[in-house]
Structures are given as structure tokens and as C-alpha cells.
Amino acid sequence: MEQDNVPKPRRSIGYWLRLVIFFVVTLYLGTSMAIGLRIAYATAHPARGRPCCLTPTEFAGLDYESVTLLSRDGLRIAGWYLPSKNGAAVVLSHSHSSHRAMTLPVAAMLAEEGYGVLMIDLRAHGESEGRTFTLWQAGDDVLGAVDYLQARPDVDPNRIGAWGFSAGAAASVHAAAQSEAIKGVIADGLSWVRFKDARGLYRGLTYQYLLIDWVHMTVTDLFYASSSHPRALVDDVGLIPPRPLLIMVAEDHPFDNESLAAEQYKRIGGESVSVWIVPGVVHGGGWDLHPQEYRQHLLNFFVRALERENE
After folding, report:
1. Bridge-based pairing state of the strands 76-82 and 245-250
2. Burial profile 69-83: b = 16 or more Cβ within 10 angstroms, e = fewer
3. Alpha-carbon distance 77 to 306, whole Å?
4. Taking each helix axis from N to C terminus, what angle separates 135-150 and 167-178, rounded to the nearest 10 degrees?
């Protein structure tokens, strides 16, 4: 009976502190894993919106053709083509979970100056084939678009460029690294594709996303690459020079992801890489917020990159 009256030892503050730390770390790890897995799935299975509302004719009075072409790995890719009047042409690629109609403002800027413009739905988007999506595989869609342009009688095969926004920017860089037929690339909203691209770019509060990004990108590499070989932007940017690459960076991106990535790619690509900080935008949209300035950068770049001396 006397043993029942023996007081139980009290837990120390250190015990409770370790317990709280264990709980917080476990919660962080579990939450990060779950979010990373969810992002990996969502990236590989984009929302398939159909091009709607406006065609090039309805948007800017431009004549166009609805076309279907083959990606380098055999998928049917849907697009709109605005015929070239000056012998040069540009492939336009949209962002994730979007479609080719998103690129109409940029298409109009180019077409008004006589450029041929091929707006494509990347794989697993819009009206194109494909059940899953990775950024480096989308490079095959851009390469298929280049093949299509090279076969057209109105296009000089030595005067083809590429423009892409966000996911389309990465796809365009991956494509240019694999084909010298792309004489210049504008990458609007370029950040990273694989953890190899991102691991040196975390600053301050962004470290909280490191594990999420690692899970997301590693799962994508392991489960969604199919038979393709995952490509990193830090490798592919170095394969583009001496051809020019213009990276357009959002000034107001909340974590400076785009500017940090652009600095990294500038170091890799050297003088062939130029950077324009687009004022007042968070991620893309410079074509709407600053149409005249955007148009000037767009046209100045392609005038130089696609000049006839490239023949």
C-alpha cells in the first residue's frame, strides 16, 4: 500500500522540448512528402483545357491554319500556324495546364512583322496527344514543331526560333539544346526542371520548400520519365551558345526564383545569355502589362537571331 503513495517522477522540460521537436519535425517531413507527391502527380497530369474563345482571326484578324504535327517521339501535336511573310518563323509554347490560345498576344506581335508563327499545344494539353507530361519530354514537341516548319515552303529552315512561357520556356530550352536548327530562344518565366537545377538557389525562407521540391522532382524523374532520359536546364543551357538565349524575369516574383535561376543560367551560358527584368509582374504577363516594351524586346531579339546571315 505504501508503494501506491510514491509520487511518479515528473517529466523534465527537456523531455517535453524533445517531444515537441520530434512532433514538429515529423509533421514537417510528412507534410513535405505529401505535398511533393501531390505536386509531382499534378505536374505529370496537367488540366487539359481546350483552346477556346478566340482564334487568331478573332483575336487580331490574322489568317491561320489548323495543323497537326508529330513530336520527335511520335505524339500527335495540335497547333495553329500563321504563314510566314519574311521567311522566318517562331515556335510558341504555353505554360503548364494551359493551351496554345494563351500565346495569341505574342503571336500577334510577331505576325504583324511578317514572322511565321506556330502555336502548339504541348503534350497532354489542349488537343494534343499524351497522357503524362514532363518538361524535358515537352522539348520533343518543340522539336517536332521545328521539323514541321523546316518542311514548309514559306519558311527558311535556317531562320527558326522559339519562344516559351514557364513550362514552355523550359521545353524550348531543352529543344534548342538538342537542335541547332533553333537559332535563338526567348524563355519567359524560366525557373528549374530538376533538383540539379534548383539545389543551389534556395535563400532564407525558401529553404522550407527544399524537401518538397526534392520529393516532387525526384518522383518525377523516377516515375514519370517513361523511357526518356531526364534533362536538366543547367546542362542544356550550356549546349545552346553561341546561339542567343533571352531570359525574361518577373521583377515581383515572391521568392526571386526566376532571378536567381536567370543568374545561374547567365553564368553557364556567358555572353550568349541575356536577361530582361520585366517590371511589375509576378510570373509572366509582360505582354499585357508592358506591350510596347515587350514587343520591342521580342522583335529586337528575333531580328538579330533570325537574320538572313544565319544561312
Report:
1. unpaired
2. bbbbbebebbbbbbb
3. 25
4. 60
Residue 274 parent element (H or E) = strand 273-278
Residue where the block lists cell 510528412: 30
Beta partners for 76?
70
> Which residues lie closer than 8 Å to 282 by C-beta, 6 or more apart?
250, 252, 253, 254
Phi-psi region of 94 (alpha: psi -120 to 50; beta: other; left: phi over 0): beta
Q: What is the pLDDT of residues 85-114, one digit of tens each?
A: 999 999 999 999 999 999 999 999 999 999
Structural domains in the chain plus CATH codes: 1-44+199-230 (no CATH), 51-193+231-310 (3.40.50.1820)
Cell numbers placing 142: 518543340
Cα–Cα distance between 200 and 203 in angstroms, integer?
A: 9
Instruction: For 245-280, write each residue's pLDDT tens digit.
Output: 999 999 988 878 899 999 999 999 999 999 999 999
Show the cell assigned to 311.
544561312
Q: Which of 210, 223, 166 shows the shortest CA–CA distance to 192? A: 166
Helix (H) or strand (E) holding 86: none
Note the pTM of the prediction, 2 decimals.
0.92
The three-state secondary structure class of 68 is strand
81: CB partners within 8 A, 6+ apart:
64, 65, 67, 116, 117, 118, 119
